[in-house]
């Protein structure tokens, strides 16, 4: 990128509220010159900087001349076999060095484990409350510098394929070859109702339970699947009078009505602490389980930090 003789006052104008002005200013500066400036400053000489950057001393000198045309200062003064920075150059160095370190930290080209970084994990609301506490504790124990961001799931395959989300934890299975999957745990299913439900006043049979309305099973981003079909066979012609993406809403409704709902046991054990819920023993559900899996883009395994996070989460379960 060619630099232009930009007047020095352009760099000193307060432009905090004028973002386009910032971009126009940077457009007129060859940012490679800042790297050369730092090399000359740190190594105290043009020859030494040329060796480090694998450039000729002439190329380094030309770059310094371009910088002198941009800034209102000679920047470096010859002293013996090397150069010494001016006060203005020392002032620039404080900002430029911090900026370059921040850029390298964000890029994390070396996959350093000690760099602060945000890991994005997608879950449904109800699954998030079950898995995120254990995930947070495990990651903080092995990589305390990492920050965790929990985001909702909308189009999981797209989120992973386009790297909008680092990881997704869900009970779905995806067919895309580019995506990897590890089962974290399997959970049994149970039929849930409110406490003192009228169903307990008679024998608990499939026939007696079919007359009650149902809420939909695991509706958070789930479509038709073999397990849903088996539940439909178990409760044929059941009336789904309410469905929600959020199992907390379902739990609140079950706790104040005669509605029934099939849900994972771990989720039931959590929700019954908040609402007056009770499990209905039903042997026909004993064989049904739901698998909770960790999903990721296989290309993410090239990232040592993310690969380590995946291993840490797997070991946590």
TrEMBL record:
Domain of life: Bacteria
Membrane spanning residue stretches: none
Alphabetized InterPro entries for the sequence: LysR-type_TF (IPR050389), LysR_HTH_N (IPR000847), LysR_subst-bd (IPR005119), WH-like_DNA-bd_sf (IPR036388), WH_DNA-bd_sf (IPR036390), YidZ_PBP2 (IPR037402)
HTH lysR-type domain boundaries: 29-86
SUPFAM superfamilies noted in UniProt: Periplasmic binding protein-like II, Winged helix' DNA-binding domain
Keyword tRNA-binding annotated: no
UniProt keyword list: DNA-binding, Transcription, Transcription regulation
PANTHER family the record matches: HTH-TYPE TRANSCRIPTIONAL REGULATOR LEUO-RELATED, LYSR FAMILY TRANSCRIPTIONAL REGULATOR
Family stated for the protein in its record: Belongs to the LysR transcriptional regulatory family.
NCBIfam families according to UniProt: PRK11482.1
Annotated protein name in UniProt: YbeF family transcriptional regulator
């Amino acid at each position: 990128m060619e630099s232009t003789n930009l007047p020095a006052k352009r760099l000193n104008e307060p432009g905090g509220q004028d973002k386009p002005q910032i971009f126009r200013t940077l457009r007129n500066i060859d940012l490679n010159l800042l790297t050369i400036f730092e090399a000359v400053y740190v190594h105290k000489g043009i020859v030494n900087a040329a060796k480090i950057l694998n450039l000729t001393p002439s190329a380094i000198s030309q770059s310094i001349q371009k910088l002198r045309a941009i800034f209102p200062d000679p920047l470096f003064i010859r002293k013996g076999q090397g150069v010494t920075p001016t006060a203005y150059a020392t002032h620039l160095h404080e900002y430029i060095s911090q900026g370059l370190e921040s850029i390298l930290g964000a890029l994390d080209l070396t996959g350093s484990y000690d760099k602060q970084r945000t890991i994005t994990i997608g879950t449904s609301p109800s699954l998030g409350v079950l898995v995120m506490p254990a995930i947070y504790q495990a990651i903080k124990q092995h990589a305390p510098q990492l920050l965790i961001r929990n985001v909702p799931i909308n189009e999981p395959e797209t989120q992973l394929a386009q790297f909008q989300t680092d990881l997704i934890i869900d009970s779905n299975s995806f067919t895309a070859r580019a995506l990897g999957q590890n089962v974290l745990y399997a959970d049994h299913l149970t039929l849930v109702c409110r406490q003192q439900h009228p169903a307990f006043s008679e024998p608990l049979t499939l026939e007696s339970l079919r007359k009650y309305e149902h809420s939909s099973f695991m509706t958070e981003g789930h479509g038709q699947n073999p397990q849903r079909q088996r539940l439909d066979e178990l409760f044929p012609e059941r009336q789904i009078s309410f469905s929600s993406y959020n199992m907390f809403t379902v739990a609140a409704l079950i706790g104040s009505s005669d509605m029934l709902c099939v849900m994972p046991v771990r989720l039931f054990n959590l929700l019954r602490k908040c609402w007056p819920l009770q499990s209905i023993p039903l042997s026909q559900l004993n064989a049904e389980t739901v698998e909770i899996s960790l999903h990721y883009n296989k290309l993410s395994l090239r990232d040592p930090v993310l690969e380590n996070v995946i291993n840490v989460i797997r070991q946590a379960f």
